[in-house]
Amino acid sequence: MTAREKLFAYNNIYDQEGSNDLFCEAMKESIQHHSSHCQLYQRFLEAKRFYVECIKSVDDCKKIPAIPAHFFKYHEVLSINKDDIEVHATSSGTEGQKSQIFLDSDSIKLGTKMAIKAMKYHGLISLIPTNYLMLGYEPKEGNEMGNTKVAMGMTRFAPAKEKVFALRAMGDRYEVDYFGIINALKRFNKQKLPVRIMGFPSYLYMLLKMMKDSGIKPLRLNKRSLVLTGGGWKKFDDIMIDKKELYQMVEEFLGIPSKNCRDFYSAVEHSVAYPECENHHMHVPIWSRVIIRDVKSLEPLGFNQPGFLSFISPLVSSMPISSIVMGDMAVLKDGKDCGCGIVTPYFEIIGRMGTSKARSCAVAASEYMKGE
Amino acid sequence: MENIYRGEPILKGEFIEKLNQLKQDIEKDLLLEPLMPNVVIEAAHRLSKKINQQEVVQQLLLLGVPKWAAEDYVKVTIDSLGREALAKKVNIELGENPFEWKRINEGIEEKNQPLGVIMHIGAGNTLGLSAFSVIEGLLTGNINILKLPENEEGISSKLLMGLIEIEPRLKPYIYVLDVSSRNKEVISKLIDVANGVAVWGSDEAIGAVRLLAPPSLPIIEWGHRLSFAYFSKNDNEEEALVGLAKDICLTDQLYCSSPQCVFYETDNTDELNDFAHRLSKHIANVAEEYPSAVRAFDVQAQITWTHELIKMEELLEKKRLIIDEKKQFSVMIDYNAELKPAPLYRNIWVMPIKREGLLGLLRVHKGHLQTVGLSCRNEDINELSDIFYAAGICRITTCGHMSIHYTGEPHDGIYALGRYIRKVNRRYGR
């Protein structure tokens, strides 16, 4: 059994201290694998003068050079044979170029294990028949979005009685089916079974806002219902509201307790999922390390200092994404201050790069031309 | 106090409460004795003498503007408000005595007439720009309603209040409201009373106004533009590179007229690399004299991100990064030519180009093009200029003068004042 396999078989998913050595070994295996199976990655490490031998302890993992996630928007980079690709996923961006991610059966197997363990840890697995409201795209042929795939996978954690999709495929495009959504919620309300609402937080907000504006009587859904959001606000940044405010609206209009609302951070370029704890913090599990990097030097920063969100994980073997830096700005916080019982650090996204209104002509022109 | 209602300072909430009264107030004022350009020019001239230069410079320093840039900005502001500059502008753009009747034919006369009410939607990118937009509206005799941009720190309101104090006759012609672009209800009400909307800013901002404004309302668009430098081998290359380095450093590439890319006519990689290295040396020299200000967090993040992506593509030999040790500036070589914005703040793209494909490459961005800093042999000037103008470029300058404007220069190819008036005529007699 490889260290990587052992790491993903490790029981306590937030025991970083106990699994440090395993993580370090798994990272060595991962870097070794990518550099010997991906020429570009080998050249990358050489250019940065980094070698597997540089990793001696878990702390050294921070020094593994990170690839900016957007690179995968424009380049297909593999550490396996094309024949071994099991799943092809794209990022869920609604416009512009999408990241292309290819997964082999090994990565999928470990990823599935990881997801089950995380869901189990947070008490999100249930045997009671459940109605699903999916605030995302209805699956159809040709939809390669990782987000849709993950959402579908997530419906396996409680037996589905019915699945209703907010974005219905109409020929070659998608349309929001408002009446379908409201009717489904009313139906679910009568049936009294637990409901799971999943999808983009922006869509959840729009749904709640519509209920509020049109004076629909607040629903009292089963108390064991869950709201599982992920994928961020994307192009709806301008209507973004605070998480707490959103969860309050969920309580008010759907009757689902705030502690049952869990947002997930996930990115196709990284593949480890970060569910919120009951205090709504995204703690780092044993399968990855989160590093916040200085926006100028890319050096690791301590707690509470803003910088680039950067991930290290041996999860994926099909692409050299073991050390990656995201376009998100974030801070890392000491997990001991959370109070939920998990003591690993947690991170908070503070914004996407370049979304602030810089005072410049050209920046705005650039936004236009990139179509983002 | 940032909000102004009919020349009087007012709280934002009170302004919004008065929105229902606005229509009546304006209808009364539209019949006032016409406002003549001279009244506005004299007031602006006196304002320019009154501006406390040190105070404004201090204010700009607090906003993170480098000292030399702040001083330069204040000087340009004062110069452009002066009597001579404004009188010349009016004369060039509207002709002599623009608001007097002029005989066209026997029994037929024409004159200029203000549009009436102009709503100005300001952009935050150039400090105090909104006040200038309003002054243009005043020079043409219009009633002006200014929606302030974000991040403006009250500079425009202060300038306009200064103008009102000097010349109380301007009061009925000036309204300022600090309201968010998202407040569509209020903005729609302001648009309702306007005869025209002058909008400064991004395509997004202009698009939003187009959605709000009725089809019958003229929209005067001052959108964002892209500029670049173009080099064809010649004997004065070094001198032009020094000028270009100044264009890059002195504006931090923030203006529409600042270079985002440099195109070099060559198909030889070594020649291009050498050119890029020469440019980087000149930038280093200029940067020593004009050090850059501390960059904002998100600005730095954007720059680092672009650099990291280039470093990845270096491995594929598609791009190349030339950067100084302190990461104060960079020359970014892209071996594939494409007009695109740089991450600004002294980070410039360099690309190889062939003259044959130039027009097509530029025309992709028609409607967004503005200035070319050109360096070439004299005998090539006409051929290249023809291509640039045909592609949609409005200004061709020498390097070192890309962001230097002359009094009365058209803005993005247009005389602004002409957009704020219309020609009226009358036929009389039998």
From TrEMBL, chain A:
Cross-referenced InterPro entries: ANL_N_sf, LuxE
Gene Ontology molecular function: any one: long-chain fatty acid--protein ligase activity
Residue span, Acyl-protein synthetase LuxE domain: 17-367
Gene Ontology BP terms: bioluminescence
Pfam family, one: LuxE
Name of the featured protein: Acyl-protein synthetase, LuxE
Source organism: Alkaliphilus peptidifermentans DSM 18978
Automatic annotation (TrEMBL), chain B:
Source organism superkingdom: Bacteria
InterPro entries membership: Ald_DH/histidinol_DH, CoA_reduct_LuxC
Pfam family, one: LuxC
GO MF term (any one): acyl-CoA dehydrogenase activity
GO biological process, one term: bioluminescence
Keywords: NADP
Name of this protein: Acyl-CoA reductase (LuxC)
Organism: Alkaliphilus peptidifermentans DSM 18978
